[in-house]
């Protein structure tokens, strides 16, 4: 009788200890990993931070070594954490996309305009007769208050589409629609816009086009217009043509505001005729008044480096204005507007440094370094007074999170900001010296606008940071 009682008491002590040990242990390896694919060793990492519209919370993914990820929320100062969902397998056969400098459609959470819902990708196994069982990504909405998922855009049961990865959700500021990028097995991409009322979650079969190439979604401040990039390939042996389009979902307007051929791009930058370039837009951001677009455009064929910063006219009347010329040693990414005359970007150098910069859209003041970030996985706060960035994988984990929130100060910061904005930011204001132009390189020049008249702005070459 006594041994039995002792055994029962021992079990009462052991059970809580086992439970606590299980809480701090990453989940067991998922059974759906393809043969030969293993997780990345190391401690859990917090990646893809995204500010809520009111700037009080940061949604992010906690990525574990077995390739599972859980949706979590941190306070605005990253001192308090709340796990919203248990870990789920997200990408069994490829890394999670989180680099803004890549210019590719990103994974990760996206807040609705009212801050009540978070859109997130979830793994969906798709059975196709031709290719077998494939891992895809569907879009689901997580109700923050109700702690429940509902489908936003999912594949039909008899899916035969090539577009099986849904990424880069952008909610319209008026809360009526959301846009996202659908990506195919071979890397082709297309832009979709869906109404939040009246449309079911099942996606229609899109028209397959092996040359489809679109992305970089940006809603206008009033939510009426959507700007995005689209590459045009007229023939397999022809040079690609890069375009920026502005459409009015549910309306009649659809305008091409920018067309960049290799010849025109060389002319804009004053490059020699034999310069090997392939222009591609990697980021778009509307100004608070909706009258301008800031864009980052790369020129390296097959790569996402050497991007410059440009100003575009959403009406397509005036030509592009160069704000910061491309550099061979760095690239610009993540454009946002800081007030009505400043553009914020992050400069990523070949050496591996990351600097948040303020650029004067009126060309009156030199650029300024606002902060130095640990990585190019970042986001600007809605009021543009902070920037959150994920620590690199090589850094030691820190409690309670590997995210870093930095304050930023930029000229004219007292100016009231719009209620909702998209982007990221950082600390310490210091002037940045402009590097010398390499010998033999022509001075970049901006293209004159198409509209004539005394009120037309004069395109001015920028000072390069």
Give a verbal description of the structure.
With 465 residues, the protein is mainly beta. It is built from 2 helices and 28 strands. Strands 1, 2, 3, 4 and 5 form a 5-stranded antiparallel sheet that branches. A 5-stranded antiparallel sheet has the order 21-22-23-24-28, with no helix packed on it. It has a 4-stranded antiparallel sheet with strand order 6-7-8-9, with no helix packed on it. The chain is globular. The chain starts with a helix and ends in a 34-residue tail after the last strand.
Strand content: 35-45%
Number of helices: 2
Q: Flag low-confidence runs.
A: 1-31, 415-465
Largest sheet: 5 strands, antiparallel
Global structural class: mainly beta
The N- to C-terminal Cα distance equals 82 Å
Nearest-integer average pLDDT = 78
What is the helix content? under 10%
């Amino acid at each position: 009788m006594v041994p039995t009682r002792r055994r029962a008491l021992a079990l009462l002590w052991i059970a809580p200890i086992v439970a606590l040990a299980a809480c701090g242990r990453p989940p067991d390896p998922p059974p759906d990993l393809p043969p030969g694919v293993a997780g990345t060793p190391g401690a859990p990492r917090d990646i893809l931070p995204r500010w809520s519209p009111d700037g009080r919370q940061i949604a992010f993914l906690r990525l574990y070594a077995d390739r599972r990820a859980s949706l979590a929320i941190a306070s605005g100062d990253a001192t308090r954490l709340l796990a919203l969902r248990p870990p789920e397998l997200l990408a069994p056969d490829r890394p999670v996309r989180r680099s803004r400098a890549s210019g590719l459609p990103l994974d990760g959470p996206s807040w609705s305009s009212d801050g009540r819902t978070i859109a997130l990708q979830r793994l969906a196994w798709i059975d196709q007769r031709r290719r077998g069982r494939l891992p895809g990504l569907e879009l689901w909405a997580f109700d923050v208050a109700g702690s429940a998922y509902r489908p936003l855009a999912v594949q039909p049961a008899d899916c035969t589409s090539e577009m099986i990865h849904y990424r880069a959700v952008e909610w319209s500021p008026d809360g009526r629609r959301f846009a996202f990028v659908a990506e195919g097995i071979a890397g082709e991409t297309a832009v979709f816009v869906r109404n939040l009322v009246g449309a079911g979650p099942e996606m229609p079969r899109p028209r397959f086009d092996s040359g489809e190439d679109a992305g970089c979604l940006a809603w206008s401040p009033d939510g009426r217009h959507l700007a995005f990039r689209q590459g045009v390939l007229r023939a397999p042996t022809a040079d690609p043509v890069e375009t920026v389009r502005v459409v009015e979902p549910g309306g009649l307007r659809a305008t091409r505001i920018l067309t960049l051929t290799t010849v025109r791009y060389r002319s804009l930058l004053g490059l020699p005729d034999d310069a090997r370039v392939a222009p591609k837009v990697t980021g778009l951001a509307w100004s608070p008044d909706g009258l301008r677009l800031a864009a980052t455009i790369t020129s390296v064929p097959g790569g996402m480096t050497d991007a410059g910063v440009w100003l575009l006219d959403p009406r397509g009347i005036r030509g592009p204005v160069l704000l910061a010329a491309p550099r061979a040693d760095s690239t610009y990414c993540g454009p946002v507007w800081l007030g009505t005359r400043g553009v914020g970007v992050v400069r990523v150098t070949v050496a591996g440094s990351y600097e948040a910069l303020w650029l004067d859209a009126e060309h009156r003041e030199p650029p300024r370094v606002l902060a130095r970030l640990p990585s190019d996985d970042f986001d600007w706060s809605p009021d543009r007074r902070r920037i959150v960035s994920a620590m690199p994988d090589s850094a030691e984990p820190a409690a309670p999170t590997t995210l870093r929130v930095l304050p930023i100060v930029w000229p004219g910061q007292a100016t009231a900001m719009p209620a909702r904005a998209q982007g990221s930011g950082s600390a310490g204001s210091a002037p940045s010296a402009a590097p010398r132009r390499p010998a033999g390189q022509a001075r970049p020049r901006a293209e004159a606008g198409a509209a004539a008249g005394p009120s037309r702005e004069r395109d001015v070459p920028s000072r390069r940071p």
